[in-house]
Amino acid sequence: MAIVDDDRHKKWRIFRLWQSQSHQNGVVSRSFIARLLFPGRRKLSLDPSNKLYFPYEPGKQGRSAVRINNSSNSHVAFKFQTTAPKSSYMRPPGGILAPGESLIATVFKFMELPQSNQKRKAKFKIISLKVKQGTDYVPELFDEQRDDVVVERVLQVVYLDPERPNPALEKLERQLAEADAAIETRKKPRANAGPKMIAEGLVLDEWRERREKYLARQRVQAVDSA
């Protein structure tokens, strides 16, 4: 009975999404129907898999962490999204991982006071996109290839009491320490002549430069096509 009910629920959900899409655009594309019937396969594995743990200290900025691992055989771009962009952000906010590559992303969130309704409403999401090797990361990739974007996970915020021992809190502290150590390592100059690593404070500048070059190429292509 549970399987039948679940299947009925999926069919009803597909119908409602199709109905909303047809009302908005007047036409339903084949790619939209394909995404409903055959959702994209996840390419990333997360740890924790679907939660973000924050030590709850009202009025302060809290930190959480999540390990993002590319478990596919392709290069994958990822991007962080939140329903509370004014009080939350992720570092790095996005990037490209080679097959088997992983990193620990740090999530910063202002801890609202107990009476705030936002305490339980904030949601976080990580989306992904398969890209070719050598692709430069720019956020516009996800707009250009919207049909191929996959929602990896919707992460739920879980608050922890920092004064009470908790396995999740201990794991979070280890991940944050590892993330901080990785940042310090990237800041140190490398002795060999390998690829130049960008210090954490310069990451946004590098992305800004790449984005400006990308937009400049788009403008040139628009002029040529005209």
Can you walk through the features of this model?
- The chain has 226 residues and is an alpha+beta fold.
- The protein has 5 helices and 9 strands, in the order H-H-E-E-E-E-E-E-E-E-H-E-H-H.
- It has helices spanning 2-25, 30-37, 141-144, 167-187, 203-225; strands at residues 44-47, 51-55, 61-70, 75-82, 88-91, 94-97, 102-110, 123-131, 150-160.
- The chain has a 5-stranded mixed β-sheet.
- The longest helix has 24 residues, at 2-25.
- The radius of gyration is 20 Å and the shape is globular.
- The model is unreliable at 1-6 and 193-204 (pLDDT under 50).
How would you summarize the topology of this molecule?
Elements: H1 2-25, H2 30-37, E1 44-47, E2 51-55, E3 61-70, E4 75-82, E5 88-91, E6 94-97, E7 102-110, E8 123-131, H3 141-144, E9 150-160, H4 167-187, H5 203-225
Parallel strand pairs: 2-9
Antiparallel strand pairs: 1-3, 3-7, 4-6, 4-8, 5-7, 8-9
Q: Helicity range of the residues?
A: 25-40%
Q: Main beta sheet: strand number and arrangement?
A: 5 strands, mixed
- H/E element sequence: HHEEEEEEEEHEHH
| Low-confidence sequence ranges | 1-6, 193-204
Query: pLDDT average, as an integer?
Result: 77
Number of helices, counting only DSSP H or I runs of 4 residues or more: 5
What's the end-to-end separation, in Å? 60 Å
Strand element count: 9
- Widest sheet, order of strands: 2-9-8-4-6
